[in-house]
Structures are given as structure tokens and as C-alpha cells.
Design a protein that fits this description.
Shape: globular
Helix content: under 10%
Largest sheet: 9 strands, mixed
Radius of gyration: 17 Å
Structural class: mainly beta
Strand content: over 45%
Number of domains: 1
Order of helices and strands: HEEEEEEEEEEEEEEEEEEEE
Number of helices: 1
Distance between the termini: 33 Å
Oligomer: single chain
């Protein structure tokens, strides 16, 4: 049975509305593509991949780090027609961590007050479930057992966080982390999985944006963890690609 989970992500929906005209939440995720890893932008479960020219251009510079026993390797993604290609492909035991920190601030209203929001997506791709340490402000990492992951915010475990696990066919599950920020899922299908978590920070602040120093009222962090399961049930057929925004 395919289960679709509505994304009740208020600020993410507002951010998405700012560039698509529709209230849908977006994320970035990392997937293998030949001899490279690629950062995609869109809606993984809906088979939406933003393109260039188009909304992919608004994502801004995307940087990623290959994390391996040989040491870290950081590089900027090279923008293509449907993503940001990275100059590395993780080997067994490696991970790739990416962020897109320069999406333009967006306007929204709260109690008739005009506010500025910062949409801040990050992503991680893993090759196994050996425990990993957080690197991004909001991060979801493997926790040591197949299907088990842990959510961190500012380096600390995040309890009661909603984590959605999806496949590209639209199959999805949602669970809440425990007091240690941990959650575990069964993964029946073969293929690519993406787990997503969000966190809103309303403390406000400043960032060095594309237009210099910019003040914002809130940040919507959206973090994903992706991995390819090599065995299991044959996946449900992927739906036809949904139209990307313009």
C-alpha cells in the first residue's frame, strides 16, 4: 500500500510558495549518478526535480563535503540542467554532506507584520548505517543499525521531531524521534530512500547573503538523509515526473 504523507511544514510551504506559486514543501537530497553524486532540488516523493533555467537557479551556490577515513574533501557543486554535480562519489563507509545556504530571503506576514524568512536546506547521503556525527545545524544521521537514524539540532539530539521516510514511488512513513532523537524504520523496498526532517528557528538574526548583510526573522531548516538499499522488494513504479516550477 502506498501512503502519502502531507507535509505540514508551514514555513517550508511559504518558502516554496515564494518560488512556485503553490504551497508545497521542497527539499534538497543527494543521489548517485554514474561516477558522481548529485544534489537535487524539488519534491523527491512527487518525482519533482527543479531545473535550470528555472527554480534551480534560485537555490544559489551549493557546497558539499565528502567525509571518509582518508579525510574530508569539500567542493562546490557544478550546476547542470537538473541539479548540482559533485566531483566525487562516496565509496563504502563514506558519506556526503551538502548545504544550500544562499536561497533568497522570502516575505510572509504574521499578525499583520511583514517578516523575512530564510529557507535553509541541507542534505546527507550515506553508504551504510554506521553511526555518524552531525555537521549541519539540523542533521539526520545514521545511528548504528539498519534503518535507525538520529536527529540533531545545533549538535544536540532532537526529541519529538517528525521524520518522514519516502521513496520516489510515493511510498512513505512518518515517525517521531524518542528522547535521544532516534527513530527506526523498516525498509521493504529496494532502491533510493530519502528521510526528511524540519525545524523552525524564530530567534532571528543576520546572514551574509547574495546582497550583503541581510536580517531575517526566522529560519526554516530542512534536512534530508538519503541512501540506496541494494536489496528488497522490487519498488513500485515511479510516477511520471511532475512539472517543476518556472
Amino acid at each position: 500500500m502506498i501512503k502519502q504523507i502531507p507535509c505540514a511544514l508551514s514555513l517550508a510551504a511559504l518558502a516554496a510558495a515564494a518560488f512556485t506559486g503553490t504551497a508545497q514543501a521542497h527539499q534538497i537530497w543527494i543521489e548517485p549518478a554514474g561516477q558522481q553524486a548529485v544534489v537535487r532540488f524539488g519534491e523527491f516523493a512527487e518525482n519533482v526535480r527543479e531545473a535550470s533555467p528555472g527554480n534551480l537557479d534560485k537555490l544559489g551556490p551549493t557546497r558539499a563535503t565528502l567525509v571518509s577515513a582518508k579525510g574530508d574533501k569539500t567542493a562546490a557543486g557544478a550546476k547542470t540542467a537538473d541539479g548540482f554535480a559533485l566531483p566525487f562519489q562516496p565509496a563504502a563507509g563514506d558519506a556526503v554532506v551538502a548545504e544550500a545556504a544562499q536561497y533568497p530571503l522570502y516575505k510572509f506576514k504574521k499578525a499583520d507584520r511583514e517578516m523575512l524568512g530564510w529557507y535553509y536546506p541541507t542534505a546527507r547521503m550515506t553508504t551504510d548505517f554506521a553511526a555518524q556525527s552531525p555537521r549541519n545545524t539540523l542533521d539526520v544521521v545514521p545511528a548504528g543499525k539498519p534503518g535507525e537514524m538520529q536527529v540533531f539540532f545545533r549538535g544536540k539530539p532532537l526529541p519529538k521531531a517528525k521524520v518522514a521516510l519516502v521513496t520516489q514511488s510515493g511510498w512513505a512513513k512518518e515517525k517521531q524521534t524518542d528522547e535521544q532523537g532516534k527513530v527506526a524504520f523498516d525498509m521493504p523496498w529496494k532502491g533510493l530512500y530519502v528521510a526528511e526532517v524540519t525545524r523552525d528557528d524564530t530567534s532571528g538574526g543576520e546572514r551574509h547573503g547574495p546582497n550583503g548583510l541581510e536580517r531575517y526573522n526566522t529560519v526554516n531548516y530542512v534536512a534530508t538523509l538519503s541512501w540506496v538499499k541494494p536489496d528488497g522488494l522490487e519498488p513500485v513504479p515511479v510516477p511520471a515526473p511532475a512539472p517543476a516550477g518556472k
